[in-house]
Amino acid sequence: MKLFRTAAGCVIEEDGQHYRLDGHTLNWLLAREDLPEFLPGLLQTIVPDQGFHAADLLAPIEHQEVWAAGVTYFRSRGARMEESKDAGGGNFYDRVYSAERPELFFKSTASRTVGNGAKVRIRADSHWSVPEPELTLVVSPKGRIIGYTVGNDMSSRDIEGENPLYLPQAKVYNGSCALGPCILVNDSPLPHSTEIELEIVRHDRVEFSDSVSLTQLKRDPITLVSYLLRDNTFPHGCFLMTGTGIVPPSSFTLASGDKIRITIEPIGTLENEVA
Ligand code: DO4
Ligand code: MG
Predict the structure, then answer these.
(1) For residue 159, what is the enclosing H or E element?
(2) Ligand 1: centre distance to CA 13 (Å)
């Protein structure tokens, strides 16, 4: 089942019907270890509501932090090595790709995160920006994967490439993260055949498109979560982006007005325009 956050509260979509969860905040829901088992029982007690409008969607995040894994696909390893070779950073990316400990970094808070239909941003001091379409895990306080959403880890590749120590500036800024359109509440792993699709539309024509399947993801989501929770507590749960396997060619940079569409079925499509 799909969990949406709207201005009027949380809404569940099940079999084409929508159910308003009056009185249950997203913080309260995502702190439940048993969310995948709890929601079906709750729906038995609620009547469907006809007042759901996709235009009312908000990012499915409240007090949760967003973290991200990096260099989890071979394609990402190669792109980072190339962009940072002048800075001598290439070796780091190669080493982290094959190391036992994954790269995990702090990505965003709710205030910097936008939902479906809202605008993502590129930094004013960057001249090379890309979207990173990433399967995003929804993690309970005790580290159970209770759902999935679609994520966009907007990145300034020139800043990241100049020096790996600039990573936080390349990754964390206003409008640098998009999540949505919903949380697919489900504790079963998504099939390896699951596709992540990216389409960037400029002036009504497709400027770039590509896809990658989860077979290319080098790290197991459960292992990524176990590293994130080492000596770290998340009382409201958290989000963990699993890295990008799609990198546009080096000649490509996002521009204002571009529309970024990221689709991961069975979650849905996250669409954002660049401000
Ligand atoms: O190491 C830099 C960032 C990597 C990243 O965001 C990714 O691989 O998706
Ligand atoms: Mg990324």
Answers:
(1) helix 157-162
(2) 32
- Residue 52: both structure tokens together: 């759901």
pTM above 0.85, yes or no: yes
Query: Cα–Cα distance between 91 and 250 in angstroms, integer?
Result: 19
Ligand 1 binding site (Cβ under 6 Å of any ligand atom): 68, 70-72, 76, 80, 103, 132, 153, 167, 243-244
Condensed to tens digits (0 to 9), the pLDDT of residues 32-50 reads 999 999 999 999 999 998 8
CA distance 182 to 64: 15
Tell me which residue has its CA closest to atom 2 in ligand 1. 70
Distances (CA, A) of 191 to 36, 47, 74, 218: 18, 32, 19, 14
Cβ pair 184, 271 in contact under 8 A: no
- Report the C-alpha gap between 30 and 74 in whole angstroms: 32
Amino acid, single-letter form, for residue 120: V
